């Protein structure tokens, strides 16, 4: 794993960092980590204390904080609510581009006082899965594609999200997929956002205007799964912060606007050996048995992990037949109707595109779940289905249609604890259950629209 800044760092290194902060007028460092929803949590630490490697702690339960702000009282969480240490990863130490005052931030691991990674922290879960690959001399390679909307400010959550006015003074009306003019329509936001992701070291590839009104997609460059998940995490953080500066919202909900396209987070995955060779490809350029076994692992285990790819009630509104959001786990060559697509590529770039996860999924957890399932398929030498020819939407639905079904399936699963960690799964199911209970306490516009006059 990457090196960490700790209280045992050398005095020379601490002094160098302190001088760097002093010369740039840095007073504070954001000590952040992704919680269960992929939201940045943490503490603001004086720059001098950070440079010296002073110990920083936070309550163990915070990585599992609900989106409502509540905490579960499931027995998996100790009654005494113990601390974990926040240990920064120096490779992620960057200046905060959107801050009104000079400030740095660093992504942290949550480490138990005994020294192990906290099992409830999403970054820990991903690192644990990668450890299984490393023990076999293997290294996964991942590249996500993230879709999101830019909307006008939304002060009243009871009102629908709307497209913002562009440079011509009018709001986009849709049907503008791949339009370069409309990709530039919100130029002040995009200019600052592009500068921000460059400053954060986020390796972006292509950008497009997607199908939805003011919906966009970015492809991140392939790389080490932890580094890529860190970039996806910071990408969302930056998008939201800079959108707010421009009176906008960056929206990563899976289905934020009725009648518009959903937003996904497709994951391209391959695996290389110690020599950097793609194990999905044989010496003659053909697909290896491991390739089909990896796909088989996804087909076998992803249904029990659906709650990770689709973590909220809203997530399940995206899976609509014919919408380019999959409804089953068939796989096919360059087939976008299937849940698992194999893009046309050279043998060295052979990979599997997992099209299940929504943009609302935690990137650390979605990547971990996909890699864990694929590795299990290879280790167990599972057999995949034959590649899908034609329209996979004509085949039966193979994924949970609702949050409740996915939640119940993960709670009853014997494979999910083995793949993702028993403590994590118990905690995750408890947190998601609390969020669903909160959802049930709300009365929706649908109920008022149809039940009020007719019941």
Structure characterization notes:
The chain is of the alpha+beta class. It is 33% helix and 18% strand. It contains 13 helices and 14 strands. The strands form two sheets. Strands 7, 8, 9, 10, 11, 12, 13 and 14 form an eight-stranded mixed beta sheet that branches. Strands 1, 2, 3, 4, 5 and 6 form a six-stranded mixed beta sheet that branches. Strand 8 (204-209) and strand 9 (215-220) form a beta hairpin. Helix 3 (122-135) packs parallel to helix 9 and helix 6 runs antiparallel to helix 9 (363-379).
Sum this structure up briefly:
The protein is α+β, with helices and mostly antiparallel strands. Helix content is 33%, strand content 18%.
| Tally of alpha and pi helices | 13
Largest sheet: 8 strands, mixed
Q: What's the total count of β strands?
A: 14
CATH superfamily of the largest domain: Glutamine synthetase/guanido kinase, catalytic domain
Q: Which CATH-level-2 architecture of the largest domain?
A: 2-Layer Sandwich
Under CATH, the topology of the largest domain can be stated as Creatine Kinase, Chain A, domain 2
**Rounded radius of gyration (Å):** 22 Å
List the helices and strands and how they pair.
Layout: H1 11-23, E1 28-34, E2 40-46, H2 47-52, E3 57-59, E4 83-88, E5 94-95, E6 103-112, H3 122-135, E7 139-152, H4 180-183, H5 187-199, E8 204-209, E9 215-220, H6 225-245, E10 248-251, E11 265-272, H7 289-301, H8 306-309, E12 331-333, E13 340-342, E14 352-354, H9 363-379, H10 403-412, H11 415-420, H12 422-440, H13 445-454
Parallel strand pairs: 1-6, 12-13
Antiparallel strand pairs: 1-2, 3-4, 4-6, 5-6, 7-9, 7-10, 7-11, 8-9, 11-14, 13-14
Helix pairs in contact: 3-9, 5-6, 6-9, 7-9, 10-12
């Amino acid at each position: 794993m990457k090196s960490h800044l700790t209280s045992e760092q050398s005095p020379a290194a601490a002094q160098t960092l302190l001088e760097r902060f002093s010369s740039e007028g840095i007073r504070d460092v954001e000590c952040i980590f992704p919680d269960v929803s992929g939201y940045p949590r943490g503490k603001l630490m004086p720059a001098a204390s950070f440079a010296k490697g002073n110990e920083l702690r936070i309550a163990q339960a915070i990585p599992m904080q609900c989106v409502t702000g509540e905490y579960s009282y499931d027995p998996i969480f100790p009654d005494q609510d113990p601390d974990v240490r926040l240990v920064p990863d120096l490779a992620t130490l960057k200046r905060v581009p959107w801050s009104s005052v000079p400030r740095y931030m660093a992504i942290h691991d949550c480490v138990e006082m005994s020294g192990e990674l906290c099992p409830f922290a999403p970054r820990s879960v991903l690192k644990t899965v990668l450890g299984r690959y490393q023990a076999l001399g293997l290294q996964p390679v991942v590249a996500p594609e993230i879709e999101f909307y830019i909307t006008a400010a939304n002060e009243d959550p009871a009102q629908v999200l709307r497209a913002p006015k562009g440079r011509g003074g009018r709001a986009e009306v849709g049907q503008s997929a791949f339009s370069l003019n409309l990709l530039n329509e919100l130029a002040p936001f995009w200019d600052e956002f592009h500068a921000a992701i460059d400053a954060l070291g986020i390796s972006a590839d292509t950008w497009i205007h997607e199908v939805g009104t003011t919906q966009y997609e970015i492809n991140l460059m392939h790389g080490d799964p932890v580094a890529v998940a860190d970039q996806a995490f910071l990408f969302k953080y930056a998008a939201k912060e800079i959108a707010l500066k421009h009176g906008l919202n960056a929206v990563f909900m899976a289905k934020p606007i009725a009648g518009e396209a959903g937003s996904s987070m497709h994951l391209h995955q391959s695996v290389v050996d110690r020599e950097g060779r793609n194990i999905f490809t044989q010496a003659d350029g053909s697909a290896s048995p491991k390739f089909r076994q990896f796909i088989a692992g996804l087909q076998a285990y992803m249904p029990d992990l659906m709650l990770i790819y689709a973590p909220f009630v809203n997530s399940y509104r995206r899976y609509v037949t014919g919408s380019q959001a999959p409804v089953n786990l068939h796989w096919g060559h360059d087939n976008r109707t299937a849940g698992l697509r194999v893009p046309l590529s050279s043998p060295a770039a052979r990979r599997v595109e997992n099209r299940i996860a929504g943009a609302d999924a935690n990137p650390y957890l979605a990547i971990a779940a996909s890699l864990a399932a694929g590795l299990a398929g290879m280790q167990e030498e599972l057999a995949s289905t034959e590649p899908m020819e034609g329209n996979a939407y004509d085949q039966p639905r193979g994924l949970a249609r609702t949050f409740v079904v996915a939640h119940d399936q993960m709670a009853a699963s014997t494979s999910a604890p083995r793949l993702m960690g028993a403590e994590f799964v118990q905690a995750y199911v408890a947190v998601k259950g609390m969020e669903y209970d909160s959802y049930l306490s709300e009365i929706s516009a649908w109920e008022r629209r149809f039940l009020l006059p007719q019941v």
